[in-house]
Amino acid sequence: MRIDVVSIFPAFFDVLDVSLLGKARSAGILDVRVHDLRDWTHDRHRTVDDTPYGGGAGMVMKPEPWGLALDEIAGPPAPDAAAPDGPDAPIIIFPSPAGEVFTQATARELSGASHLVFGCGRYEGIDERVFEYAKTLGSVRLVSLGDYVLNGGEVAVMAMIEAVGRLLPGVVGNPESLVEESHEEGLLEYPSYTKPSTWRGRDVPEVLLSGNHGAIAAWRHEQQVERTRVRRPDLLRETD
Ligand code: ADE
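# adenine complex -> structure
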């Protein structure tokens, strides 16, 4: 999978060289290219923002550098001005607290794409015309990490790249661990224990030492349902 990231703080993404994603990059499973938006400016100050039309607080990211960056990375525009949706058309993702919420289902969906482009906004956001223009280059998604506000899209994009990247074949050593984790079945993950069987006066639940695989599976499922009921009842309502 190819992933391009456009940001005014490319150093945020240096950590993509470590851990499993770093290995996936070295192995050629993940081709991540990080770009500095200012490389597409042409003035002495490498300006990427300006005051908002209509007034208001803060600055808005100018459309020109974004247009040039997207042309180079995701372009060229489709000749008939129709939204390109073929298998090679990139998915262009703008992290935004005003977007659809990113879930494990979103990660699964994006993991099937061949080319993702992430555009990281800062300040009060990006000139709205950039989103419209991007639709001539690929399918556009505004995606939120959750109902809170970050200073910019970089941290959100890091989270999304990790969630998507670990679903690519060959990134996580044991694919079974992807099935048995939180959110894969609409439930939270069951609790895990390792040796020693007693630690600081606390015992591992008896059933896990029993060797009875049926009983263990049933106990784990109960734990999943109970945890989800207590911590995330909204997930149970979704599967009703
Ligand atoms: N940018 C600022 N806040 C964000 C959020 N919650 N999710 C995605 N991008 C953001």
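# post-check
The chain is about 30% helix and 20% strand.
The mean pLDDT is 93.
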